[in-house]
Design a protein that fits this description.
Radius of gyration: 20 Å
Largest sheet: 7 strands, mixed
Oligomer: single chain
Organism: uncultured Adhaeribacter sp
Structural class: alpha/beta
Helix content: 40-55%
CATH class of the largest domain: Alpha Beta
InterPro entries: ANL_N_sf (IPR042099)
Order of helices and strands: HHHHEEHEHHEHEHEHEEE
Distance between the termini: 41 Å
Protein name: Possible acyl protein synthase/acyl-CoA reductase-like protein
Shape: elongated
Number of strands: 9
Number of helices: 10
Length: 289
């Protein structure tokens, strides 16, 4: 009975609630509360956390009453809802000194469908783009949800010239030049520190004109490779190097599997399936942030 009820909810949620949110047919709060109660019952780690906090799921009536599971738990516990054998295990990027979060997925295809829906709600069909990626640390560490997402975008776009580039910046610039002949939009996903490396290379070799029509999608941060910068400073530096009017950004987390996008100025747009609430990590009931 446990397995059957769990599977029934998952199937109904995927077929009805998810599609309805994107179509504007369902109330986000109702969907979130239903999902919260399902996870409270079938996720042992989250259920134990709620018991420790003395939270009774049936009494929770609003989004603000839902306790958030600390991200650190994904590093120390097996956070899994229901009984399944994971088809994919994504790991957070982390650094060489930090333990990586683990996210177990029974159906990675559902994650990719969600990622595609979010992207296309902001930027239009994947088939309009040639996707290039400069994500060296993610490729080197492996098990990256970001790499899986971008790889899916490349495949679904059905465009030639797509590809990942590890450290060969000359090959990347050649690919940008070739993609510019296809009469398609070009999007470059790049981890922050690698985009700065590319910016230095482009300026040193006077190649900025290649990037004037490229949508630069910055994501991931410095990963300990360069000094940290505020986003406005970073984007100004990248805009000058690539001679583009704006820098786009993607924000996602391995533990959450949803993305938000900024089309410029550091203002992020959330999809219909995502809302943001701020909490103090040391006080799960605090709403004063």
């Amino acid at each position: 009975m446990f397995y059957g009820r769990c599977m029934d909810f998952k199937q109904n949620f995927k077929e009805n609630l998810y599609a309805g949110l994107f179509a504007g047919e369902h109330n986000f709060t109702d969907c979130a509360l239903a999902l919260f109660r399902y996870q409270a019952q079938y996720n042992p780690v989250y259920g134990a956390y709620l018991q420790y906090l003395k939270v009774r799921p049936e009494q929770v009536q609003s989004l603000s009453e839902i306790p958030f599971l600390p991200i650190e738990f994904f590093k120390t516990q097996t956070v899994q809802t229901g009984i399944f054998t994971p088809q994919t295990i994504f790991l957070s990027s982390g650094t060489t000194q930090s333990e990586r979060s683990r996210h177990l997925l029974p159906e990675p295809e559902f994650y990719l469908l969600n990622a595609r829906s979010i992207f296309e709600s902001c930027y239009g069909p994947l088939t309009d783009y040639v996707f290039l990626a400069l994500l060296p640390s993610y490729l080197e560490q492996g098990h990256s949800s970001l790499v899986a997402m971008v790889d899916h975008f490349m495949t679904a776009s059905c465009q030639p010239g797509k590809g990942f580039f590890l450290h060969d910046l000359a090959a990347l610039c050649a690919a940008v030049k070739q993609a510019g002949r296809q009469n398609k939009k070009i999007m470059l996903f790049g981890v922050t520190y690698a985009l700065l490396d590319l910016a230095d290379y482009v300026q040193a070799h006077s190649l900025a004109d290649l990037f004037g029509q490229v949508l630069i999608m910055e994501t991931g941060g410095m990963k300990g490779r360069r000094r940290e910068m505020i986003r406005s400073e970073l984007h100004e530096q990248l805009k000058q190097a690539f001679r583009v009017p704006t820098i786009h950004s993607e924000y996602g987390m391995t533990e959450l599997l949803s993305q938000a996008y900024s089309l410029g100025e550091g203002i992020f747009r959330c999809p219909p399936t995502m809302q943001i609430l701020l909490r103090d990590p040391n006080d799960p009931f605090s709403l004063d942030l």
